[in-house]
Amino acid sequence: MSASGLPFDDIRDLVANMPKADRKAVHAKREREAQLTKPAGSLGRLEDLSEWVASWRGSATILRPLVAVFAGTHGVTKQNVSPYPSEVTQQMVSNFAAGGAAINQICATYDLGLKVFDLALEYPTGDISVEPAMDEKTCAATMAFGMEVLAGDPDLLCLGEMGIGNTTIGAALYCALFGGEPAEWVGPGTGLDEEGLRHKAEVVGRALETHKGHLRDPLEALRRLGGREIAAMAGAIVAARTQRVPVIIDGFVATAAAAVLYKMDPSSLDHCLFAHVSAEPGHMKALAAMDKVPLLALGMRLGEGTGAALAAGIVKAACQCHTGMATFEQAAVSTKAG
Ligand SMILES: Cc1cc2ncn([C@H]3O[C@H](COP(=O)(O)O)[C@@H](O)[C@H]3O)c2cc1C
Ligand SMILES: O=C(O)c1cccnc1
To answer: What is the 302 CA–ligand 1 centroid distance (Å)?
Structure first.
């Protein structure tokens, strides 16, 4: 803990002292790219992706990609904001362990490691419409727990989540961080109808009213409105940066964790790639607020890290092209005339 003893101070210190991208590695990577057997620039955004990996890792090599899924339970589910009961969170954690979820199949397809972290599922956070989700100590400890995801030394980290009710949490956080009306940020989540959507916006409005005057500091907004899985993902993003590990952020909910850090310092997300734009309508708006361009648009709205894992497959292919392709000289292929 920091000298002042305030749990969030350690996080603030880490965010204020983050390493920068490696310009030398980028230069070396571009030199090699120019020699590979293809017309210059012909791999399009794949060339940006391999450069992004090299800028953090020193080279465009991925040997230990990991998908981390954080699961949390939310007191706000008492307000009927999701069509599914809160028990589904634990049941899906069991499903992940048994290999039966969508994320298991995508990880198997692209040979990605998968770790699932359940965060005190039997103790839901406070109902944000009437009280803070967490106290500062719990929130900081949960962020620190999220940092542990780096323990196995992954060289690419995909972040995803499971937590019934967490699209409400995400919407409340976006509204606090970026402003606007609750109705602009809420969406159907797992499948609310129009009436449900109106009610969800009303619950988010009540949460913002309850915490009014305390939401300017992004970490304070996180502890009051956020869930444990969102706090853990924010911690994981910070820890990955300190260890120069590139991070792929999943959909609407995972992006809310990134948004907290963005509001602390926009450059704190330089090592993050936004995998896809979710069908949850507020996601496009959140990405635009941070000036981020998602890699994919597949109409997905699942969570679990599924969008991030799909993007990891593309990032792996991009790096394999860069490291595995022959140069014009090696393959005796003629270069551009003149
Ligand atoms: C079977 C099932 C599997 C899931 N996998 C991810 N989510 C997703 O849906 C939840 C958020 O939506 P809401 O805010 O509407 O509850 C999160 O748990 C999220 O990861 C799932 C949801 C369900 C029902
Ligand atoms: O995009 C997401 O992260 C999402 C969308 C709907 C439900 N759960 C997650």
So the answer is: 6
Ligand 1, pocket-test mutation among 190, 193, 203, most atoms within 8 A of CB: 190
CATH of the domain at 66: 3.40.50.10210
The yes-or-no verdict on residue 191 having pLDDT over 60 is: yes
CB-ligand 1 contact for 229 (6 Å cutoff): no
pTM, two decimals, is 0.98
Q: Which ligand is located closest to the Cα atom of residue 275?
A: 2
Model confidence at 338, in pLDDT bands (50, 70, 90)? confident
Determine the pLDDT at residue 323: 98
| Cα of 287 from ligand 2 centre, angstroms | 14
Q: Is 224 inside any structural domain? A: yes
Ligand nearest to the CA of 167: 1
Q: Does any domain span residue 338?
A: no
Residue 300 CA: which ligand 2 atom is closest?
1
Length of the chain: 338
Residue 120 has which token pair? 């005190």
235 found inside a domain: yes
Residue 6's pLDDT band (boundaries 50, 70, 90)? confident
pLDDT digits (tens, 9 = 90+) for 106-122: 999 999 999 999 999 99
Please check whether residue 61 is in contact with residue 246, taking contact to mean a CB–CB distance below 8 angstroms.
no
Distance between CA atoms of 15 and 237, rounded to whole angstroms? Answer: 10
Residue 219 lies in a domain: yes
Q: Which domain holds residue 326?
A: 8-331
Q: Is the CB of 92 under 6 A from ligand 1?
A: yes
- C-beta of residue 260 within 8 angstroms of C-beta of residue 219: yes
Ligand 2 centroid to Cα of residue 253, in Å, is: 6
Number of domains, the chain: 1
Between CA 268 and CA 290 the distance in angstroms is 12
